[in-house]
Amino acid sequence: MGIPLKEYKLQFGDREWQCDYTATFFERGIGLLGRKSYPHNRIMVIPKCGSVHTWFMRFPIDIVFLDKCGKVLRIEYNVAPWRMLFGGRGAATTLEAAASSGAESAFAGIRVGDTLTLVK
Question: pTM for the full model?
């Protein structure tokens, strides 16, 4: 369930995803923590975030780190609970989604260097 978040869309070419945008410090700190699951067709957007941890998570997640212009810097799939990841130099926004394999992943087809656009 979690706290209610602002809804955005993330676009890449002709693809589009529904997103939950964490606008406040509290929302960014909570992210997906405490949830038993998260819809496979949604993405959690965490701005002002260049690193994440999966401590206390109940399920594995897929993670994408973006720079301030939306360029993909790093992608990690199937990150288990109790891990810590850094997006690297210039990471400004983190995207999280429930882990899925192959073409079912929310981030399937996205590559390092691609540019994603966030739309209200």
Answer: 0.90
Q: Which residues contact 32 (CB under 8 A, 6 or more apart)?
A: 2, 38, 44, 57, 61, 96
> CA 36, 20, 97: angle at the middle one, nearest 5?
50
Residue 1 pLDDT class (50, 70, 90 cuts): very low
CA distances 44 to 20, 69, 90, 97, 107, Å, are 5, 18, 19, 6, 12
Radius of gyration in angstroms for the set of CA atoms belonging to the chain, rounded to a whole number: 13
Amino acid at 2: G
What does the buried/exposed string (b/e) look like for 13-49 if buried means 16 or more CB atoms within 10 Å of the residue's CB?
eeeebebbbbeeeebbebbbeeeeebeeebbbbbeeb
Nearest to 63 by CA among 43, 48, 82: 43
